[in-house]
């Protein structure tokens, strides 16, 4: 009988979460590099380059890949011959590991978990509790999979109770445009089929823990229906032309994962959960010999890619920007931002809208300013701010018209596409929306030379900061006429791909 000590599980979970905060899995790096090498759309290729450069920087600097350091999901398989030397429950041990990891002074991770989700939505402060799945299995070890899932990709999850005769492929392809680019492609799609509603969702999440191996499957051929679905969906999703960050291109998914389970004769439950460019998961075993040891990857595992300013790039001084200058920008233009940039996301936007509705003055003037949708990680050492990549812009769509019309806000910076309401408001107010690359948070943070909280400090990472930035790279995603590259880019590349088939 194996004896597992409480401290060994706690420390292993803590070490695993720190490990995945700055190390991508090697299979992900290899697949992303292959996508970079074959990509023909310059904008998508540039986005993948930023993700790969950011990944290498995080691996060497031991800082988070993404500012959204995720909600923790843990799958624990406990051997039936294991005996615990512990006075805490299994859930409490896992959560203590999460707490220890997210509060580690050398690499504090952003706490994103809110209690009372439909009420006060109060941050728990240490990213607990995790979502934990247990299973008793034969054996004398404990097998643990730890993942940290970003909220942007999790928000794009889909579920349906299909009729038995309905096509899973057709349903997945129907959902894909509705998911937009907020899940930060290229990544993976986990698909769960069967069981009951909650089982299908669990299967989809668990599927994302498997390594990227679609090329090996293509080479050896399929052995069952799940593998047939993987190949068919991999081909058809990549033919969609959505591309990296939704800009249009050849690679939308790096792999498709499918897990299934027997279901009721009247049902076909199907779930999709995407994994983003901040793919973070690791597996370890405990056999009674102590805490898990996770080997550091070699720096040679990362390709050496440099990001260079191309021709036609606009350098913009935010402190001198005018509405007339913004109207010269074209969709797809690369812009390097310098000067003072405000930040604000969901909670700050809601508070500002509420203040405006009451006739109150805002704590900071927004006229001719730009606001960046971000909730940064706290700085460590000599950093002015921790990793500070963009959050999904569509969540701010409902606030956009009011802010543009009542404050004179000129532009916004965020992740992925804008919805119809925001695009109409941007067009009507001759404003602009700029896209920063999701999954390049540490790289973006290098452009931030100063950071100061100037309003709503009680909101923590959702407070309004003023950043001083220097050559922060962004793309014109919606111009003053309302033209969106997230509509034109995928449409163009879908046609290009179709003509080659």
Question: If you had to describe this structure to a student in words, what would you say it looks like?
Answer:
There is one protein chain. This protein has about 500 residues and is of the alpha/beta class. Helices cover about 35% and strands about 25% of the residues. The chain contains 15 helices and 19 strands. It has helices at about 5-20, 25-40, 40-60, 90-100, 150-155, 170-180, 195-205, 215-220, 225-240, 325, 345-355, 395-405, 420-430, 440-445, 485-500; strands at about 1-5, 70-80, 80-85, 115, 120-125, 130-135, 140-150, 160, 185-195, 255-260, 270-275, 280-285, 315, 335-345, 370, 410-415, 430-435, 450-455, 465-480. The protein has a 5-stranded mixed β-barrel. Helix 12 links the parallel strand 15 (about 370) and strand 16. The protein is globular. The model has no long low-confidence stretch (mean pLDDT about 95).
Order of strands in the sheet with most strands: 14-15-16-17-19
Q: pLDDT average, as an integer?
A: 95
- How many β strands by DSSP? 19
Strand content: 15-25%
Q: Rounded to an integer, what's the Rg over CA atoms?
A: 23 Å
Broad structural category:
alpha/beta
Count of alpha and pi helical runs: 15
Distance between the termini: 58 Å
Low-confidence stretches: none
